[in-house]
């Protein structure tokens, strides 16, 4: 209950922040984009995990306020980086509530316009299970976002139950293989078979494949051999504050 009240005020008090984790291009080995991950630095409890407070926000009707803050802040930061010569695509995560919000595409369109961004600089990640939970809402929202030119990604792929026919119809550009498969790559032939098949499937559907949760050199090598397009994980970099990400990307050049 205490956290719930604190969360209401966290935005106004500036306690929320986005951290950014690089995605690495498999062919060039350079940063191809970043994923924005929400952080709450609580004055008493320190860093509270989004696993905790996003569930709270959903339960107490604060998820739209939180989600809107993420949209605006990610766009603001992307524009600031572009002004400083770092032009790249920034990904945000969408909750199931945002997906059902009928005005989401308009809201995102306005944020892009307000910050002077091209729609292709923003990518929205939706987990496979959320996308399949409400297929109608997903289709409507994806179509709306695709119409304004925002890129779309299916997150945590392999953990939900996708209908392949439905997947085929979604206007997405990217598919992220869930980190549980990546984790098992070196020890499990089955995991290698699944990942290899998912890469082929995604490519056949015209989707770029991102492997998330890459933690070792061995995993990286296997994924590159499978022609995975982009890699993301602690092996390359942890999520970090915006200024650290900028410095990190300068060091990569
Ligand atoms: O960053 P971390 O691994 O702690 O994130 C935990 C979970 O919170 C992940 O499932 C991640 O997708 C989710 N998450 C992080 N930031 C956001 C956000 O801005 N919006 C939503 N809806 N989920 C987020
Ligand atoms: O659900 P989603 O895929 O958006 O989750 C993102 C979460 O994954 C973030 O909280 C981030 O901290 C975490 N993460 C990113 N890279 C790694 C990694 O290499 N290993 C593990 N275990 N978690 C990671
Ligand atoms: Na994500
Ligand atoms: Mn994911």
UniProtKB/TrEMBL annotation:
Reading the lineage from the top rank, the first entry is: Bacteria
Report the residue ranges that make up the EAL domain in this protein: 1-253
- Output this protein's name: Diguanylate cyclase (GGDEF)-like protein
Which species does this protein come from?
Acidovorax soli
Per the UniProt record, the lineage of the source organism begins with: Bacteria, Pseudomonadati, Pseudomonadota, Betaproteobacteria, Burkholderiales
